[in-house]
Design a protein that fits this description.
Length: 341
């Protein structure tokens, strides 16, 4: 990957959608009801999903002050299918579907062009500025066009420079392997590589490039006795996002969890291997508070965690540096929940 491949732009959104339509048009007479690649969705529903993503990223840029995702109804075409807002009338055939794709891409491109850089659209992986919104639309188009192309039996080889720009903007932590398209396919859980198992979960980082530090601590290892038990606490109880859960073979997994904002250091939940590591579970710092979970709303998070059964070892206290309380995970690791002053 290039060190500075450049930004992802509105023109990139237009061009990738155009290229996707050109690639898929030879399969227009095929069976669009077959699964798209390894997905459970049909080729038709997956193409609608691309249009739906492009539309949603556009309208979220237009409503940055809304506190939640926009309450736009989305319905599946059939029970069990993906719930999309943007759907193309099957009677119009593939050409009608292609027109919907092009229009949705044009809408996102237009919003990217006119939205001030300081605007942040709501997204699970962090507030998205216009460039991140463009990059998300391009990523979804790149990857899902590959899914549809596989189902229809047509080739899809996107621009490697565009893939490099998307990787640099949304997935900067991914180590490149081979060409950028191969790297992106692995990063998005589509393929396994000789030295990397296929990802079962994945995501990206919408943080503005200029806001990213030159160095940061990306992961901290936390020894646990069992992967699924650890996920049950950190994800289901504490409310963290499961960022990755990849099978490495030999009963080992790469399990990463972190705050749902997508920002800051994440935890590598590592199953203890051998007696020496097992004795360290819950006591990696000799009884000292091991980890610090900062919050912007102490009272709300404290109440939510109490309701979820998190074990607090004291009552909240006010210190010169902020409001803080100590809690413990099921293994004995001590945490500070803290709202800095």
């Amino acid at each position: 990957m290039l060190d500075h491949p450049g930004p992802v732009t509105a023109d990139d959104v237009v061009s990738v959608v155009r290229d996707a339509v050109v690639a898929l048009r030879p399969g227009a007479g095929g069976d669009w009801s077959v699964p798209a690649g390894d997905l459970e969705w049909s080729c038709w529903v997956t193409a609608e999903h691309i249009a739906d993503d492009l539309f949603y990223y556009a309208v979220e840029l237009g409503s940055p002050g809304h506190p939640e995702y926009l309450p736009i109804e989305a319905e599946p075409r059939k029970p069990g299918e993906e719930a999309n807002t943007i759907r193309s009338d099957p009677a119009a055939g593939p050409e009608g579907l292609f027109a919907v794709l092009v229009a949705s891409g044009a809408l996102l491109a237009a919003m990217v062009r006119v939205t001030p850089p300081a605007v942040r659209a709501r997204h699970t992986f962090g507030g998205a500025d216009p460039e991140a919104s463009a990059a998300m639309g391009v990523l979804e188009t790149l990857v899902h066009t590959r899914d549809v192309a596989q189902g229809l039996g047509v080739p899809w080889t996107p621009d490697p420079g565009l893939c490099a720009r998307v990787l640099a903007r949304l997935l900067p932590e991914v180590e490149p392997v081979g060409d950028p398209w191969t790297t992106l396919l692995w990063a998005c859980g589509r393929i396994a590589l000789p030295d990397r198992a296929r990802r079962s979960t994945w995501g990206w980082d919408n943080t503005t490039r200029s806001a990213r530090p030159a160095q940061e601590i990306g992961l901290v290892t936390l020894l646990v006795p069992d992967y699924d038990d650890a996920i049950a606490f950190y994800v289901d109880v504490l409310g963290f996002a499961l960022v990755e859960d990849t099978d490495l073979g030999d009963r080992k997994r790469w399990v990463v969890a972190g705050p749902p904002s997508g920002r800051g250091t994440r935890l590598l939940l590592a199953r203890a291997d051998g007696d020496a590591q097992q004795t360290r579970i819950g006591d990696q710092t000799g009884g000292h508070v091991a980890l610090f979970l900062t919050t912007a709303d102490f009272d709300a998070d404290h109440a939510r965690m109490l309701d979820a059964g998190v074990a607090f070892t004291e009552e909240p206290r006010h210190e010169p540096y902020g409001t803080v309380v100590v809690f413990a995970d099921p293994y004995g690791n001590r945490w500070d929940l803290i709202q800095p002053s």
